[in-house]
Write a structure and sequence with these properties.
A: 317 residues, alpha+beta, 9 helices, B: 184 residues
Chain lengths: 317, 184
Amino acid sequence: MKTVSELTDFYYKTLYPSLKKLDEDRKKLKSRIIKIGVIYTIIFIIIAYLISSLSVELNGFIIFVYFVVGAIIYKLLIKDYTADFKQNIIKPLIYAIESTLRYESTSHVSSHLFNRSDLFSHPDRITGNDFVKGKLEDINIEFSDIHAEKRHKDSKGRESWSTIFQGLFIVAEFNKNFDGKTIILPDTAQSTFGNLIGGWLQSKNITRDELIKMDDVEFEKEFVVYGSDQIEARYILSPALMKKILTLQERSKHPIYISFIRNHIHIAIYYNKDLFEPSIFRSLLEYKVAMEYVNTLHLSLGIVKELKLNQKLWSKK
Amino acid sequence: MSTSLIIFIVIALVLVLMYNSLVAKKNQVKNIFAGVDTQLKKRYDLIPNLVATVSKYMDHEKSLLTEVTKLRADANKPNISDDQKIKLDAKITSALSGIMIAVENYPDLKANENVMHLQGTLNEVEEQISAARRAYNQAVTDYNNAIEMVPTNFMASAMNYTRKEVFEIPQTQRENVNVKELFN
C-alpha cells in the first residue's frame, strides 16, 4: 500500500489539473453562496418582519425556518461541486491505493453490519456516503461515512433526532477464528470516576457481557473490554494487537469503538462530522485540507496492514 | 425497630456479600483453569505425532524428544494438582520450543508437509494457551487481591482460602510470535 507521503505526492502532482479546475469552481461557488446568502437573509428579514407584526409567538419558529430553508438552499448550491469533487479527487485517490476497490459516493455500509457490530444502541435512521468496498492484501474490507440517529417524540408528538454515531465505520475480515463476542469501548467510567469506582461501575454494566480486565496498563486506561468469553477475548486481543489499537487511537485522534463478532472486526471512529466532503471556504490546494482527505483514507484502508489482518492464521489460509 | 437490629442486619448483609464475592472469585479461577486445561490437553495430543515424525530425522536431539514424551506422560497422570500442571506446562513449553528450534537445522524436516502441518497446529494451540494463561492469571490476581485486602482477608482466612500461583509467562511469548516468519 502507498504511504501517506506517496499519496500526498499523488494528490498534488497527478490530481493537480483537476484540483486547479475545481478550485476555480470553488471560488465562483463561494462568491455565489455569499451573494445568495445575503439576498436570502434580506428577503427573509422582510418577510419575518411582516409576519411578526401579526403575531409575536412565532419568533422561535421563524429562526428555525430560516436555518432549515438556508441549509436546503446551501445543499442544492454545492451539490454539483460535491459530485465533481468526489468523482475527480476522492475516487482517484482510492484507486491510487488499490485499483480493484469499488467506490460509490452515495451508498454506505449496510445497516445490517452496523447493527451487527453491537457497538451502539440500535438506531432508527442510518444515513451515510462514500462507500468503499473490496479486497486489500486478500482481506475483505469495506467502510463508509455513517450517521446513525435515534428518534425521540415529546409529549406533544413532535419528532426530534439525536445522533448515536457519526463518523467512519469500517468492517474487515479478522485473521483468527472465534465464536463469541468481544467489544472494546472508550473508557469513560474509569477516566471520570477513577479506578476503584469506575472499575466497579464497569463491572455493573448490565447491557454488556462480562467485563474483561486486560493485562496492558496503557490499554486498560484508554479502553474497557466486554466479552462473552474471558479466554477468547484474550486470544483475539494479543499483547501485540492491544499495542496496535493504541497506536491507531493515537493516529485517529478521535474516540474508537471496536467489536469482534462473526470472525469480523468492526471499527467505528467517532469523528462527529461528515468526512470526504469538499471544503468550500478553504482552498483544496491547502496542505491541511489535502492531508485530511489523505490521512483519513490511509487510516481506514491502512488498518489491514496496521492491525496485521493480512497475517492470516495458518488454519484460515 | 431498634438501632442494634439495623446494625446487625447491615453487618450480616456485608458478610454475605463478602462471602459471595469470594466464592465467585474462587469459582472464576476454577472455571478458567478448566479452559486452560482443555487447551493444554490439545497440545499434549499433538506431542506423540510430533515426536514420531521428527524422530526419524533427528539424531542429536533424542534426549529432547524423550524428555517431552516423559513430560506428557506426567501431565496425563490422573490426580495431579493445578500447581503441578502449571509447572509441567512451563517445562513442556520450553521443551517444545527447543524441538522447534532444532527442526530449523534439518532442511528436509522443515519442508516435510506433516511437520509443517504440526507446526501450524501447534502454533495455534500455543496462542490459545497463551490467551488462556493470561485469563487465568487475571482471575488469580483478582482472587489473591481479595484474600489479601481488607476487609475480605478476614473472611478469606476464616474460609481457609489460600493464595494461588499464577503462570509465569515466558518472555518469548510476550512478544507475539510472528507466525509468518516461522513458516518462511
